[in-house]
Design goal:
Length: 77
């Protein structure tokens, strides 16, 4: 795509197209897509950390939040 740069995110399998900021509609759509990708990556990383025996305190510290905040947002329901 003209005007875009592609970025491969290792371990996720997605290619993220980064639009120029002078196209607000496309740029904002990219922001939404990046947030969704970041959410999937975060949830997968937290699940793996918990499988490996990490505590919620460790997860929270790695994410820069409290254990309670990490658990409230990321615990499987």
């Amino acid at each position: 795509m003209a005007g875009f740069s592609s970025t491969k995110v290792d371990g996720v399998g997605d290619v993220v197209e980064v639009p120029p900021p002078d196209d607000p509609a496309t740029a904002l759509a990219a922001v939404v897509a990046l947030r969704q990708l970041a959410d999937r990556l975060e949830r997968a990383a937290v699940a793996r950390a918990l499988e490996q025996g990490w505590t919620w305190a460790q997860v929270g510290q790695a994410l820069g939040v409290s254990a309670q905040a990490a658990h409230k947002r990321l615990a499987r329901r």
